[in-house]
Amino acid sequence: MTNTDVVVVGSGIAGLFFALKVAKYGTVTLVTKKSRPESSTNWAQGGVAAVFGTDDSPDLHIEDTLVAGAGLCHPDAVDVLVREGPSRVRELIELGVRFTQEGEDLSLGREGGHSRRRIVRAADLTGREIERGLLHAVAENPKIHILENHAAVDLLTATDPGTLGERCCGVLVLDTEAGELKPFLARAVMLATGGCGQVYRHTTNPSIATGDGVAMAYRAGAKVANMEFVQFHPTALYPARDHTFLISEAVRGEGAVLRRRDGAAFMDAYHPLASLAPRDVVARAIDTEMKRSGDPYVNLDCSAIPEAEIRARFPNILRETGERGMDMLREPIPVVPAAHYLCGGVLTDTDGRSSVPGLYAAGETACTGVHGANRLASNSLLEALVFAHRAAERIGPQLAVTRMLQPAAPPPQPTGEAAADAELEAQREVIRNVMWDSVGIVRSGARLADAEARLRPISELVNGLWATARPTAELVEVRNVIQTALLIVRCASRRHESRGLHFDEDHPYRDNEHMLRDTIIVR
Ligand code: FAD
Ligand code: SIN
User: Fold this and answer.
1) Residue with the nearest Cα to atom 32 of ligand 1?
2) Ligand 2 within 6 A of 250 CB?
3) Which domains does the chain have, with CATH numbers?
4) Which residue spans adopt a coiled-coil conformation according to this UniProt entry (predicted)?
5) pTM
């Protein structure tokens, strides 16, 4: 049994920034399920949206965020995001993160849905630079202890003698190298486990994105919201290799145009902003064009961007496409939509608090309300910074007066034979295909019902294994993948309209009379 003031789960931007902030107040143990940089953060390209431009204002950023969110953003959360964001970006710079400059000023990029240039970036490797800077700062902080290859499995709860309600008092963790389950007790637990793109066949997300935080919080009785709003990024490189490589929206921001394979630009027919329309519109348009033509991809024509600018702004994209035998300077590159970002998650307030006392969430795992039904590009790194900071400021001063509790029953330790990874991998493939085919960019009542019918038996199988088999890293993930997939199906089945990222062909219009609300579910 390990005791620490705060346990943080996850070493992306949210977990690391939170750990640095809360370490001012107490001891921190940060568990991460693979090596420390493995995270979506490390792959982020475009940048961090924040108001720095002389022609920009918080009101404009708020307005753009609300428009993208299609009526479901929480205005108080958006206000906090936009007004506190620039200070958090400055703190990153003070910590040593090096963003691209233009002279004395930050270089600001443009992305879809933004009415001004406001994307702070480090060329096209923004996330890698942020992750590097934060990991460096964390390594120098003696109050933060990082454990790699430690996968959080379940949250521990106990009855709080003060309130007589249930309180989160720690995390059960699998040391994936030793194969051992270890309880960690804490006064507060922060879930910063990222998204769930791995629930889908095609995704821009790295392998760690299996929905663990949302699944754990749900099992612990926390409210989970808006899981139907999964963002599909319009431009992932086709074909995928080991994982799908993203072609940043910033490339369209600088002038690249989407074309059919016959060369015709098609986005004008779908939206006045054409290739820079909001992501949901672009992803659906590409999906429609691909279905109509039978082509497996559409093209992104970068010829309007001067070569020097491509070399300076998108060196990594140029290199990655080049390694695949493509020349983006001279020919269009093939792209397809892929699952990219989870707007829903563990429901939190603007201080990161979930509905279970003692349990907090930040970053992609959380549903703070800032994204509503659709996230504005580059608002997620900002969200992670702003709300991780606020959670630390909320938790820190409370640590001295918060008791360490013991869970009522010791967590069970199944000792049966471990399930074969190959069998679990096969189930995972089925889940990913069902989700892509039936719970993807365009949904319908019949397809959602079919998905549920095909996913339920897998859930029963996996739960049966969980009760008896010795836990492994693969079993932990498959259990969370199936749980998360079912949460997405459940939320999608409750939204009988089309709004933002949820498009239901049985109800192709917005229904503000009945559906202008979050979809909230509790175990
Ligand atoms: P992550 O960075 O994903 O970190 C999650 C951490 O939790 C990882 O360390 C993981 O190993 C760990 N973890 C997960 N489960 C467990 C468990 N059970 N136990 C222990 N540890 C666990 N957003 C922008 O704002 N701008 C961009 O330009 C941008 N570009 C993107 C490009 C790509 C290719 C992708 C995939 C995403 C992009 N996004 C962008 C989205 C953004 O990167 C993510 O939303 C953000 O980085 C999430 O940060 P996080 O800290 O919440 O999670
Ligand atoms: C991108 O660079 O297109 C990704 C930006 C984001 O997801 O916010």
Assistant:
1) 44
2) yes
3) 1-43+125-229+343-407 (3.50.50.60), 236-338 (3.90.700.10), 421-517 (1.20.58.100)
4) none
5) 0.96
